[in-house]
Amino acid sequence: MTWILIIPTVLILIYNAYVKLSSSPGAIQLFTGLGLEPYGRLLLGATEIFAALLIVYPPTMKYGAVLGVILMSGVILIHLTKLGIALGGDYSFFIMGIVAFCCSAALIWISYRK
């Protein structure tokens, strides 16, 4: 049951980390506009990978899920306040943030019920 939540969460975190850590022009432009380039972009990308690794390893899943909720809360908040929901008409990053947030929150709930 938990793999249904783990797989999309980990894929979203790793994809977003790749976008940040590969120095894609869009990520650089976005983080420059936020005043977080390059250290914020690199730190967030590394933290997303760390959260994904914690989620995949069962004994640390709940800690990774908590980190995922924190990271995705920041993503959602930044989209709602500074970036807008659609970046250049593309809603995918906001939707991925919502999905990863919900899956991480469900993982926390499941892990504490055990």
Largest sheet: none
Low-confidence stretches: none
What shape does the CA trace take?
globular
User: DSSP strand (E) fraction?
Assistant: under 5%
Helix content: over 70%
- Cα(first) to Cα(last) distance is 13 Å
**H/E element order:** HHHHH
Number of strands: 0
The class by helix and strand makeup works out as: mainly alpha
If you had to describe this structure to a student in words, what would you say it looks like?
With about 110 residues, the protein is mainly alpha-helical. The chain has helices spanning about 1-20, 25-35, 40-55, 60-85, 90-114. The chain has one domain. It has 5 helices and no strands. Helix 1 (about 1-20) runs antiparallel to helix 3 (about 40-55) and helix 4 packs antiparallel against helix 5. The longest helix is centred in the middle third of the chain and has 23 residues, at about 60-85. The model has no long low-confidence stretch (mean pLDDT about 95).
